[in-house]
Amino acid sequence: MLFLQACATTIGRWDETKYAATDFGSWRSVNVCIYRDTGVPPERERQLLAGTIEEWKQYNVTVNFIDRGELPRRGFWHNELLDEIDAVPLTQSCDRVFWLVNRNAADYLYANGPAFLTLGTLLAMPEILGEVDDATMTHGWAIAYGDSFNTLLMSPAAALKHEFYHLIGSCPHRVTMDECYERIAELKHSQAQAGWYPSVGINGQTFLDREKANQVLATYRDPFLP
Q1: Cβ(56)–Cβ(63) under 8 Å?
Q2: 171, part of any domain
Q3: Which CATH number is 39's domain given?
Q4: What does the alpha-carbon distance between residue 13 and residue 9 come to, in Å, rounded to a whole number?
């Protein structure tokens, strides 16, 4: 989850020594099925995902994005958005599922309204720009466009890149990325179901097949209510 203004969550500070000492193994591929909210064109999808493709090459990971078309948003709060994308099951062609969510007038008023009401004294409301489910780390969403002060600090492309450390690497929030490197290496070396890229939930449960991940997500609901 990326939570801005009042506080910001981070994967951690880059540690070149730890990175260089970590064995990330041979190249592996991850298939990520991408859904687009109404009003988010394929061109915007490609633009946002380009940086993430390059990011994962440094871990010997090829990220294959599979466009699954539009999925219109129904909710407003972040947990409603996560519940909606969590309802999309993992299939044989999808190791992960991700959703690019459009912005609407309600988002704009929530994020920027206090600044107008106080003549800029308050810059913005705390705002969640993306999130990945805690239970399996296989589903998530991020904003496709930015229209607030918070998105000047963290662009949509940067928010998406952050969420993919959770989505593909099952990385926790830490001061440094040391544990993230270890988790990425652990997943790459795991003996998972053929055709499946494994994940680890926030509680430490490892998912070596997609069927188990689907079972857990069927009853999972984001605990961070608005």
Answers
A1: yes
A2: yes
A3: 3.40.390
A4: 12
